[in-house]
Write a structure and sequence with these properties.
binds magnesium ion; binds 2'-deoxyinosine 5'-triphosphate; 202 residues
Length: 202
């Protein structure tokens, strides 16, 4: 496992919600961060069929474009009653000609569960794969998961993406009803981050 000994890390994401969470999670380690937006980087096509594959694409594209070490995050929700969908296609379910519409994506998720008459609780997992990549091509991969259930109607206006329909196990609130610090203690991203910190920053 290679340690990170730089003072600057590029967070290779175009998602502001993720970027804020990652910046908070990294804040104790005194690392300066910038994001794809700061470097004017295009959003690479995510052509792989696994979270790890897509996270690798994003991290290595950012490293190649800037020469900086980069950390990417590929994540999504796997819903038991839908055979693991939307999974790596979680963002695609929100895609419209005018940008991403997560109300539409959450509505589709619930409608498809209704269509198959999925039993309750409607189990699901948020999953996160982090890839830390260096300019010489080396990378390290870390995975995290948060089990829970899909609920309806949507609840809460905090967080981002599918947060309003995901209730983590052991809680009676959705991610959308948690403040960012609370979510950052237990989320799939926090789980992957613990491993990243132990592996590369400790
Ligand atoms: O904590 C989360 N709370 C709610 N929703 C979440 C979360 N984490 C991922 N998600 C959803 C949003 C997005 O629809 C998809 C990830 O897709 P994914 O390609 O990894 O991210 P993205 O396209 O938004 O940004 P980018 O690729 O530039 O990092 O899963
Ligand atoms: Mg993406």
């Amino acid at each position: 496992m290679r340690k990170f000994d730089g003072d600057h890390l590029l967070i290779a994401t175009h998602n502001r919600g993720k970027l804020e969470e990652i910046a908070d999670l990294l804040s104790p380690f005194g690392v300066k961060v910038s994001s794809n937006a700061d470097h004017g980087l295009p959003e690479p096509e995510e052509t792989e069929t696994t979270f790890t594959g897509n996270a690798r694409i994003k991290a290595h594209a950012a490293v190649k474009a800037t020469g900086l070490p980069a950390l990417s995050d590929d994540s999504g929700i796997t819903v038991d009653g839908l055979g693991g969908a939307p999974g790596v296609y979680t963002a695609d379910w929100a895609e419209t000609p005018d940008g991403r519409d997560f109300d539409m994506a959450m509505t589709r998720t619930w409608s498809e569960l209704e269509a198959v008459d999925a039993p309750y609780p409607r189990g699901a997992q948020f999953r996160c794969c982090l890839v830390l990549a260096w300019p010489d091509g080396h990378d390290e991969v870390f995975e995290g998961v948060m089990p829970g259930q899909v609920v309806w109607p949507m609840r809460g206006d905090q967080g981002h993406g599918y947060d309003p329909i995901f209730q983590p196990d052991g809680y009676d609130v959705t991610f959308g009803e948690m403040d960012r610090w609370e979510k950052n203690k237990i989320s799939h991203r926090a789980d992957a981050f613990k491993k990243l910190i132990e592996g590369c920053f400790a």
